[in-house]
């Protein structure tokens, strides 16, 4: 079913060649994508080595670059998890952007009636509201799949567009702060509710939340009966039913949790960066998250590493633009190339696996 | 070109050690319908796949109108005008009937002149005794209309020998009449010869001229339908009892406690039509009840319902408690199963052997405390089961697909039968297994029974059933049509009920 989701059975330790393959293929895919990207920038009249040098410098070359990279990695980790968790249950869900913006909107408005309260409970409330909104939005796709047979990949993508439209509708209408003139926004949250900076890192506390959730996801998927059950459901719904697992509940539950991750990402962007919900939330984190999860083979800890890599690439985009006058979309091209190469590598891996089986 | 005479001579085909066809000869006379009867796995499909060039026989040859031909690929069969109508449809649902017919041609022109194609089509369909709408999308057709369109497609392609593989299994009786009646009239008119694969005696009797009965890869009976009684056909299909495969443990009189009770259970099949109809049955403690029947009579749906994989109406109770197949009920009431094709139906391919052995109890102590899995205990349990049931595997962490069929079965036996089994549902548990694995499966089932479990054994192999069970129920068209104690069972009587005949 999930030929492209590439979930590996974690603790079972596949035969060694297969395990090596699952690491080697994404690496090869990134190298191949880099080669094509090098050709692309060469066509633009730039030296590819200069470009790669600037990417490293812009993403990881200075403490400022690291701060930028890390604050981008925080939402990328969460939207990566939002793709990886349903993948364990055999679902390919790609609608993270919609859940992220709705989570951000919920986080932005939930504390508005309570000005002047203690900060910590309000911060928790914001993240929880974001999680709930994102979870419900993703949950819809799972309900449609389990009860109406609608393909979850397509429905989640379409629901994502609907979510973004609802976001625009509300931030430009009912929930708009009349004072926000050039950029329609919700009323700003109480400044004291903003997530604090992590001491000594210069990055907001949302990064710590993301890391904590990634570690929790890793532990739950790998070391608990929930992770085990989810892999049974993802491995074969037939067999899961035979051993008495309520497949619908498992699938919908996992998808809800995944949507919650994307929703928290949105709430963090509001509570740590924007201070309000506006169109700055819609910058494509949800779509980059798909790339992060696929490149990380849907493993939560690998997602942290890949999110850093992709975050660094995105952070370097402005440097490329300033120094070399490469267009803004250059990094999107690079990301897209990587994604295509990963999908091809996955398809080849699948083929190899099936050939060895015969 | 008129209806060809096709002769298959001394066809033999092996798959590994398995002899699928053993020196089978068959004569399809010009302008006749030749029926192939036989249980699943008797070799019918293998034989016709040789005839359409899909398989290459190890031995034997094919003559069409007296000339010998080698069929290296389905293209060669196509050139000879041999075509097959499959049990399941091969039309593109999103295209109209006309489009389907035109694109089914082996050589499509780069530019399709739809007007002339449609004219040609209209000429083909004009002669039909029934109406096939050409400009309707296939997805909107009923099953009967689709099957008719399949046959029209073969005629349009100029096929002269039609092979029909259980063409009526998805049709209503009226639709079946129409489809087969049409094939019959075409053969009578000398335009076609046909091979009809069927399980249904009345179809063979009504629409076929000749019949050949296959059993375990060999042709055991052949002749004109008119000269063979239903009795003779049933006997040939089922065969004489071979030496009993299993030595029974001395039978104990079954205890009176009813373990499984089904009352008026109805289940729909995948096609949305009722597959199990108002079925009631009981299985007692210490008893093996067998369900005999030709495949496709609702047994699969019955098993899936008992395993909690299908919705149903009616009541199922285990030891007097309503049973819906939840995990808690399964553990409390002790309901376990041995499905057919265990790799596909009882194992998770991408999880390891050790994990597959834990599917029944991964969420209970000692494998799990609170929510934390104890992989040490899981591996320990797997090592114990592998040793106890002598599962041969590359290692506990090997994926299930690395195991042979017999060892997959041993792993499933180990997992299911080491639980506290009070009701065991076994569905064709030896299908596709080698002799040793079969014997072991039988032995373990009898052991479970002797240990006090109630066993429901569904099998298409009557010998297997008669060797194992205490009581036999015959299932036909979704109902139990006959019940007999294994001691007094007469194979011929059972065979008649299996074939859907009313009176004994």
TrEMBL record, chain B:
InterPro entries: AAA+_ATPase, ABC_carbohydrate_import_ATPase, ABC_transporter-like_ATP-bd, ABC_transporter-like_CS, P-loop_NTPase. The keyword Nucleotide-binding applies. The keyword RNA-binding does not apply. CDD domains: ABC_Carb_Monos_I (cd03216), ABC_Carb_Monos_II (cd03215). Keywords: ATP-binding, Nucleotide-binding. GO terms for molecular function: ATP binding; ATP hydrolysis activity. Residues 6-241, 260-502 form the ABC transporter domain. This is ABC transporter ATP-binding protein. Belongs to the ABC transporter superfamily. It comes from the Bacteria. PROSITE patterns: ABC_TRANSPORTER_1, ABC_TRANSPORTER_2. Involved in beta-(1-->2)glucan export. Transmembrane domains (TMD) form a pore in the inner membrane and the ATP-binding domain (NBD) is responsible for energy generation. Pfam families: ABC_tran. It comes from Bradyrhizobium betae.
């Amino acid at each position: 079913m999930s030929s492209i989701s590439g979930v590996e059975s974690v603790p079972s330790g596949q035969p060694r060649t297969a395990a090596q393959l699952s690491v080697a293929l994404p690496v090869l895919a990134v190298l191949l994508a880099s080669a094509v990207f090098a050709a692309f920038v060469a066509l633009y009249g730039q030296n590819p080595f200069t470009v790669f040098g600037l990417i490293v410098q812009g993403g990881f070359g200075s403490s400022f670059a690291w701060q930028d990279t890390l604050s981008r990695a925080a939402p990328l980790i969460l939207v990566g998890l939002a793709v990886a968790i349903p993948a364990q249950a055999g679902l390919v869900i790609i609608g993270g952007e919609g859940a992220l913006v709705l989570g951000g909107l919920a986080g932005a408005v939930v504390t508005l009636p309570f000005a002047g309260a203690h900060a910590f409970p309000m911060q928790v409330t914001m993240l929880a509201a974001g999680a709930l909104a994102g979870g419900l939005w993703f949950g819809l796709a799972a309900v449609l799949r389990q009860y109406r047979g609608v393909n979850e990949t397509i429905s989640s993508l379409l629901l994502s567009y609907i979510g973004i439209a609802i976001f625009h509708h509300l931030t430009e209408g009912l929930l708009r702060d009349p004072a926000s003139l050039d950029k329609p926004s919700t009323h700003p949250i109480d400044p004291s509710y903003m997530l604090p900076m992590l001491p000594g890192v210069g990055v907001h506390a949302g990064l710590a939340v993301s890391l904590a959730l990634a570690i929790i996801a890793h532990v739950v998927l790998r070391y608990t009966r929930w992770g085990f059950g989810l892999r049974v459901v993802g491995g074969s719904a037939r067999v899961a039913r035979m051993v008495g697992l309520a497949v619908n509940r498992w699938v919908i539950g996992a998808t809800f949790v995944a949507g919650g991750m994307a929703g928290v990402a949105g709430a963090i962007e509001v509570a740590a960066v924007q201070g309000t919900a506006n169109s700055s939330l819609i910058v494509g984190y949800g779509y980059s998250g798909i790339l992060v999860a696929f490149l990380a083979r849907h493993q939560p800890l690998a997602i942290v590493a890949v999110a850093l890599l992709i975050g660094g690439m995105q952070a370097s985009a402005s440097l490329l633009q300033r120094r070399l006058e490469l267009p803004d979309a250059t990094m999107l091209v690079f990301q897209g190339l990587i994604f295509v190469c990963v999908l091809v590598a996955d398809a080849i891996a699948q083929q190899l696996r099936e050939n060895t089986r015969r | 070109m008129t209806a060809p005479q096709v002769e298959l001579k001394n066809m033999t085909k092996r798959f590994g050690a398995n002899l699928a066809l053993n020196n089978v000869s068959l004569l399809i006379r010009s302008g006749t319908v030749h029926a192939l009867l036989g249980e699943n796995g008797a070799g019918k499909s293998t034989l016709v796949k040789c005839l359409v060039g899909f398989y290459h026989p190890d031995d034997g040859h094919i003559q069409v109108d007296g000339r010998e031909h080698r069929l290296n690929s389905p293209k060669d069969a196509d050139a000879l005008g041999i075509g097959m109508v499959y049990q399941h449809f091969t039309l593109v649902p999103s295209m109209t009937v006309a489009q389907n017919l035109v694109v089914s041609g082996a050589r499509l022109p780069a530019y399709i002149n739809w007007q002339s194609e449609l004219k040609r089509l209209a000429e083909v369909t004009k002669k039909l005794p029934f109406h096939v709408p050409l400009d309707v999308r296939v997805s909107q057709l009923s099953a009967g209309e689709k099957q008719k369109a399949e046959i029209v497609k073969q005629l349009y392609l100029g096929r002269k020998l039609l092979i029909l593989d259980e063409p009526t299994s998805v049709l209503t009786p009226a639709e079946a009449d129409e489809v087969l009646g049409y094939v019959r009239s075409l053969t009578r008119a000398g335009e076609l010869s046909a091979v009809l694969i069927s399980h249904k005696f009345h179809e063979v009797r009504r629409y076929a001229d000749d019949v050949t009965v296959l059993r375990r890869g060999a042709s055991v009976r052949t002749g004109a339908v008119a000269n063979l009684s239903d009795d003779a056909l049933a006997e040939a299909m089922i065969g004489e009892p071979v030496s009993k495969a299993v030595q029974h443990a001395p039978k104990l009189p079954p205890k009176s406690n009813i373990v499984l009770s089904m009352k008026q259970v109805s289940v729909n099949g995948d096609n949305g039509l009722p597959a199990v109809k108002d079925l009631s049955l009981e299985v007692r403690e210490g008893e093996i009840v067998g369900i005999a029947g030709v495949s496709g009579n609702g047994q699969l749906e019955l098993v899936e319902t008992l395993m909690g994989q299908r919705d149903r109406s009616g009541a199922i109770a285990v030891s007097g408690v309503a049973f819906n197949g939840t995990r808690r009920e399964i553990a409390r009431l002790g309901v376990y199963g041995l499905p057919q094709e265990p790799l596909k139906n009882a194992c998770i391919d991408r999880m390891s052997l050790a994990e597959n052995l834990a599917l029944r109890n991964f969420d209970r102590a000692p494998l799990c405390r609170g929510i934390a899995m104890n992989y040490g205990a899981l591996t320990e349990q797997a090592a114990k089961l592998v040793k106890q049931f002598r599962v041969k595997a590359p290692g506990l962490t090997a994926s299930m697909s690395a195991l042979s069929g017999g060892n997959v079965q041993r792993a499933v036996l180990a997992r299911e039968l080491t639980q506290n089994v009070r009701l065991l549902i076994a569905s064709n548990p030896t299908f596709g297994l080698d002799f040793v694995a079969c014997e072991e499966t039988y032995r373990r089932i009898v052991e479970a029974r002797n240990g006090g479990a109630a066993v429901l054994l569904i099998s298409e192999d009557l010998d297997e059933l008669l060797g194992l069970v205490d009581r036999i129920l015959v299932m036909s068209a979704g109902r139990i049509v006959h019940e007999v104690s294994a001691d007094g069972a007469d194979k011929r009587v059972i065979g008649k009920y299996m074939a859907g005949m009313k009176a004994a």
